[in-house]
Amino acid sequence: MKRTLAVAAVLAALTPLAAQAQFAKPEDAIKYRQSSFSVLATHFGRIGAMVNGRIPYDAKIAGENAALVATLAKLPGAAFPAGSESGMNTRAKPEIWKDTAKFQAAYEKMVAETAKLPAAAGDAGTLKTAFGAAAATCKGCHDDFRRD
Ligand code: ASC
What's the pTM? Predict the structure, then answer.
């Protein structure tokens, strides 16, 4: 029961975006998720460069990238419809469609951790911690659900 409610809550959380992302062809869904992950990784990487000292910390730029990451993180989740398991050199593993609840939970974790970045962006140390937590959710999902 508790689990059913948890799954229902996750589905409800994704519903507004599911409405935005209806794809005529499986290839369109694959292209959408690859593109949105790519743009997400670009902005996440800019924060990473700052917290890892490759570029100087700048609160304004950090905040702009954090806001983009928090928004972009919500996009790809709606782009894994049944039937989009293969094509376009997708690295998505079949487990996404076999263990959908686990995949959605992992995805929601990423959405939740990236949502904390805008509030953390004003302080370099706080941002570094929040970035690390978010990056761990990226990696967790890649380990289980993405081919290398
Ligand atoms: C990044 C990026 C990811 C994550 C992941 C964290 O900067 O593009 O996919 O961090 O590598 O382990």
Answer: 0.86
